[in-house]
Specification:
There is one protein chain. The chain contains nine helices and eight strands. The protein has 228 residues and is of the alpha/beta class. Strands 7-6-5-4-3-2-1-8 form an eight-stranded parallel sheet. It is globular. Bound molecules: pyridoxal-5'-phosphate. The site of pyridoxal-5'-phosphate (PLP) has 14 residues, from strand 8 and helix 9. Pyridoxal-5'-phosphate (PLP) binds at residues 37, 39, 60, 83-84, 167, 202-204, 218-222.
Length: 228
């Protein structure tokens, strides 16, 4: 199979599975945004996926996001998402890229991003990343820290808070997986402001995530194949 056929197959299977999960949950497939996670894959893969109709792409590193954005400058309708940990010293670059940021998890980073977005005269869509289980090796703020961070971001005139994001623990127990997604949904519902979006679910569990309310699923290997 050539690369185009492989990617067409991966995207078709993913779009179909999203449609079925939405039907099971009584949701419209238009309410779910598929973010094709293109990390470690060449810009050429993104170009092919774009030809096949995919528009949202996710990268883990600011550097790769910028490099691919530059290489694909002739495709103006691509939408970029930063889904990996963001360091404060990369805030200016990511603000200038205009990417949606899924990994905002502390107050100083929010303030820096706001300042840089203001300098770039743009506004950025952001998700607050939550570390639901307090896993030490993972980024994300604690569930208890969410209300203060939400309030702070709301006062940032160049940031638009769109929702919450999580990368729950890897588990073979589907009830456990479902419970974590439900916990993120409940946490969003408890906030004083409406948080419309939930960024949750990867290749192995995006269908469960959709059943539990995901609006943004981040799918890599199911589309592009295994890493490397
Ligand atoms: C790599 C990654 C994904 C996609 O993972 P797959 O298992 O390849 O679908 C989603 N979210 C984050 C934060 C990631 O780092």
């Amino acid at each position: 199979m050539d690369r185009r056929d492989e990617l067409r197959r991966g995207l078709d299977l993913t779009w179909t599975a999203i449609g079925s999960a939405c039907a099971r949950a009584g949701r419209s497939a238009d309410d779910v945004r598929l973010i094709a996670v293109s990390k470690f894959k060449p810009a050429e893969d993104i170009r092919i996926a774009h030809e096949l109709g995919q528009r949202d792409f996710g990268e883990n590193y600011v550097q790769s996001l910028l490099a691919k954005q530059a290489e694909l400058r002739d495709l103006p309708d691509l939408r970029w998402h930063l889904i990996g940990h963001l360091q404060r010293n990369k805030a200016r670059q990511v603000a200038e890229s205009g990417a949606c940021i899924h990994t905002l998890d502390d107050a100083r980073l929010a303030a820096e991003l706001n300042k840089r977005a203001s300098g770039a005269q743009c506004s950025l869509d952001v998700f607050v990343q939550v570390n639901l289980r307090g896993e030490p090796q993972k980024a994300g703020c604690s569930p208890e820290a969410v209300p203060d961070l939400v309030e702070l971001i709301t006062s940032c005139t160049h940031l638009v808070l769109v929702g919450l994001m999580a990368v729950p623990p890897n588990s073979d127990d589907s009830d456990d997986v479902r419970g974590n997604f439900a916990a993120l949904r409940q946490l969003a519902a408890q906030q004083t402001l409406p948080l419309a979006r939930l960024s949750m679910g990867m290749s192995r569990d995006f269908e469960i995530a959709i059943e539990e309310g995901a609006t943004d699923v981040r799918v890599g290997s199911a589309i592009f194949g295994e890493r490397g």
